[in-house]
Design a protein that fits this description.
The chain is α+β, with helices and mostly antiparallel strands. The protein folds into 3 domains: about 130 residues, Butyryl-Coa Dehydrogenase, subunit A, domain 1; about 120 residues, Butyryl-CoA Dehydrogenase, subunit A, domain 2 (Beta Barrel), CATH 2.40.110; about 140 residues, Butyryl-CoA Dehydrogenase, subunit A, domain 3. The strands form 4 sheets. It has a 4-stranded mixed sheet, covered by helices on one side. A hairpin with a 2-residue loop joins β4 and β5. The two termini are about 35 Å apart. It binds flavin-adenine dinucleotide (FAD). The site of flavin-adenine dinucleotide has 24 residues, from α4, β3, β5 and α10. Flavin-adenine dinucleotide (FAD) binds next to α4, β3, β5 and α10.
Length: about 400
C-alpha cells in the first residue's frame, strides 16, 4: 500500500490520502452508521441487547471479513480497512463498533494468524459472514493486566484437553450467535534458573456449545450496554487435542501479539468516539441559543471545540501511523500503544467536554453524548489499561516498568 502525505486531503480530518478503496469503504460505513446504527442506538442501549439485524447487515457488507483472505470467506483487504470501518461505527455507537473490533481482532485474527488450515477453514468463513461471533478469554479474577495470574487449567489425556476454571469480562462470549471462545489455560509449569516457577500458557478453541462451558448472566455495565460481555465457567470441558491454537506454551506470547494488533483497531474505535463527540458538539453549539446567541459564538465554547478537533486529529494520525506500519510489515508495537493511549484519552476528554457543551441535555441518556460519556471510560481500561500502554512504551525506551 502506498500512502502519500497530502496537503489537500479529501478528508479534512486526516493528514493522509487514503487509497481509493479505503476512502470508499470509509464513506460507505459512515453512511450506514448515520442511517442505520445511530437511529437505533438509544433503543438498544436501553434494552441492553445486541441488535442482531444490524450485525447481520454488517456481515452482508463484508465488514467482519475485511482483513481475511477470500479463500477463507473474507474480503481480501487489510487491517487498515477494518480500522476505518470500526472508526466510523464508533462515531454512532461504540457497542456496535466493539462488537466488530473484538469479533475480528480477538475472535477471528488469532485463528487466521496461528490456526491450522483445518481450523481456518472451519471457523473463518462463519466468522467472516457476521452470522457467528467468537470471543477471546484471557482475563480472570486474578489475571487482568498480569496474565501470569491465570488459574484456568487444561490437562491433556487420551487425545483430549480437559479444561477447568473461570474467565471474566469476555466480549462476544454469550450472544445468541457466539459459536466459539478461545481461552488461555495453564498447561504445565517449568522452573527458571533462579528457582521460580513459570506457568506454561496455551490457547485452546472451545466451540459453543460444549458440555461444561457455561456463559453466566451478562454484566450490568456502566456503558457499552449493547455489547455482549459475560463471565464464563468451565467445568471439565473436553475438547479434542487438535483444538490447541498455535504452539503449546506460546499462549501468552501469542496473546500479546493479538493485543498489539487489536490495539490499533481499538485506537480507531477511540478516534471514532472522539469524532462523534466533536460532531455532536459542533451541531449543538450552532443551534443552542442562550443569552440571545448561539453558544458557539462564545470563545470559551469555540475553543473547547477546537481542542476537541485537535485531539481527534492527533488520535487519528497516531492510529493511521500504527496501521500503516502494521500492514506494511514494519514494527508497530510502540505505535499501537501510543495510538491506544492517545485515542482513549481523546475519547474520554471529548466525551466530558461534549457533555458539558450539551448542558442538562448532556446528562440525559437519550442524548448521544451521554452515551459516549458512559461508554468512553472503558476505552482507558479494555485491551490493556493506560498504565499498561505506558509500560509498553517505556519498555521500548529501555525501562523495565512492570
Ligand atoms: C467491557 C469489558 C470488555 C472486556 N473484554 C475482554 C475480552 O474480550 N477478553 C479478555 O480477556 N478481557 C476482556 N476485558 C478485560 C480487560 O482487558 C481487563 O479488565 C483489563 O486488562 C484490566 O485488567 P483488570 O480489570 O484485572 O485490572 P487490574 O489488572 O487489576 O488493574 C487494576 C488497576 O491497576 C493498574 N495496574 C496494574 N498493574 C500495574 C502496574 N504494574 N503499574 C501501574 N499500574 C498498574 C491498572 O492499570 C488498573 O488501573 C474486558 C473488560 C471489560 C470491562
Amino acid at each position: 500500500m502506498t500512502v502519500s502525505p497530502s496537503s489537500t486531503a479529501s478528508d479534512s480530518l486526516s493528514g493522509y490520502e487514503l487509497p481509493q478503496f479505503h476512502r470508499k469503504l470509509r464513506d460507505q460505513v459512515r453512511e450506514f452508521a448515520d442511517e442505520v446504527v445511530a437511529p437505533a442506538a438509544y433503543e438498544y442501549d436501553t434494552k441492553r441487547e445486541l441488535p442482531y439485524d444490524i450485525i447481520a447487515e454488517m456481515g452482508d457488507m463484508g465488514l467482519f471479513g475485511l482483513p481475511l483472505p477470500i479463500e477463507y470467506g473474507g474480503q481480501g483487504r487489510d487491517y487498515l480497512a477494518l480500522c476505518l470501518a470500526v472508526e466510523q461505527l464508533a462515531r454512532a455507537d461504540q457497542s456496535i463498533a466493539v462488537t466488530l473490533e473484538a469479533g475480528v481482532g480477538l475472535g477471528a485474527m488469532p485463528i487466521f494468524r496461528r490456526g491450522t488450515e483445518a481450523q481456518k477453514h472451519e471457523w473463518l468463513p462463519q466468522l467472516a459472514s457476521g452470522r457467528a461471533l467468537a470471543g477471546f478469554g484471557l482475563t480472570e479474577a486474578d489475571a487482568g493486566s498480569d496474565a501470569a495470574g491465570t488459574k484456568t487449567t487444561a490437562t491433556l489425556a487420551d487425545g483430549e484437553w480437559t479444561i477447568n476454571g473461570t474467565k471474566q469480562f469476555i466480549t462476544n462470549s454469550g450472544s445468541k450467535i457466539t459459536r466459539l471462545v478461545t481461552i488461555t489455560a495453564v498447561t504445565g509449569e517449568s522452573v527458571r534458573a533462579d528457582g521460580s516457577v513459570k506457568k506454561e500458557l496455551t490457547a485452546i478453541l472451545v466451540p459453543v456449545p460444549t458440555p461444561g462451558f457455561v456463559q453466566e448472566p451478562a454484566y450490568d455495565k456502566v456503558g457499552w450496554h449493547t455489547s455482549d460481555t459475560h463471565p464464563l465457567t468451565l467445568t471439565d470441558v473436553r475438547v479434542p487435542e487438535t483444538n490447541i491454537l498455535g504452539e503449546r506454551g506460546r499462549g501468552f506470547a501469542n496473546f500479546i501479539q493479538t493485543l498489539d494488533e487489536g490495539r490499533v483497531a481499538f485506537a480507531a474505535l477511540c478516534t471514532g468516539a472522539a469524532q462523534g463527540c466533536l460532531e455532536e458538539s459542533i451541531k449543538y453549539a450552532n443551534t443552542r441559543n442562550v443569552f440571545g446567541k448561539n453558544i458557539g459564538a462564545n470563545q470559551y465554547i469555540a475553543f473547547k471545540i477546537a481542542r476537541m478537533q485537535a485531539r481527534v486529529h492527533s488520535a487519528r494520525l497516531a492510529y493511521y501511523d500504527a496501521a500503516f506500519k502494521l500492514v506494511n510489515g514494519r514494527p508497530f508495537k510502540m505505535e499501537a500503544s501510543i495510538a491506544k493511549l492517545l485515542g482513549s484519552e481523546a475519547a474520554m476528554e471529548n466525551a466530558r467536554d461534549a457533555t458539558q457543551i450539551f448542558g442538562g441535555y448532556g446528562f440525559m441518556n437519550s442524548s448521544p453524548v451521554a452515551r459516549h460519556y458512559r461508554d468512553s471510560k472503558i476505552l482507558e481500561i479494555g485491551e490493556g489499561t493506560s498504565e499498561v500502554q505506558l509500560a509498553v512504551i517505556s519498555r521500548v525506551l529501555g525501562f523495565d516498568a512492570l
